[in-house]
Amino acid sequence: MDPLQRFAAYAADFEKTFEDDEWIRLEGYFAEDAIYTVKGTPFDCEVRGRDAIFRAIKKSIDGFDRRFDKREIEPDGPPVVEGNRVTFSGSGRYEKQGVDTLTIQLSETAELDEEGLIVGLIDVYTAGRTRCSAGSSATARSSMRPTSEGRRCAGVRPMPLPEGTGTSGGDSGRSEPQRFC
Questions:
Q1: Of 51, 129, 161, 163, which is least surrounded by CB within 10 A?
Q2: How many distinct structural domains can be found in the chain?
Q3: What residues make up the domain containing 111?
């Protein structure tokens, strides 16, 4: 099976799953012993096994993506295919009323086996390429700490994001990153 066509089908079905939470739709895309790796964040991790991967991704999108009013994924260009690996690079734009718009740079690489199943999925978040709009000049550091101006930009705060403020509470505005792995 063509890796690019398979990855495109997976990506389209992932977006449907994002909307309706029907994770069973994605089972046919992953090997049972697949490995999911997250890099470039305070919550870097590795998850082993299809079911554990789905739980981890669901926890992540429930704790972050779904807390925003709007989420848009924009490719930087066409995916790159190298043998049985497909790499997508792009950005996610997140909007929520009352907080600055957040843009996160991401690269996702899927490694497929000879049957077209994903055996490895790696998400890499690019440090320093996360930004907030609406006048905030902040760029996210690898620690994802609050901006020096004290602005409440949803993306430069550790997860989870409670409704509205982009902080997990407390007087200091600091919290530990959410662990989904």
A1: 163
A2: 1
A3: 3-156
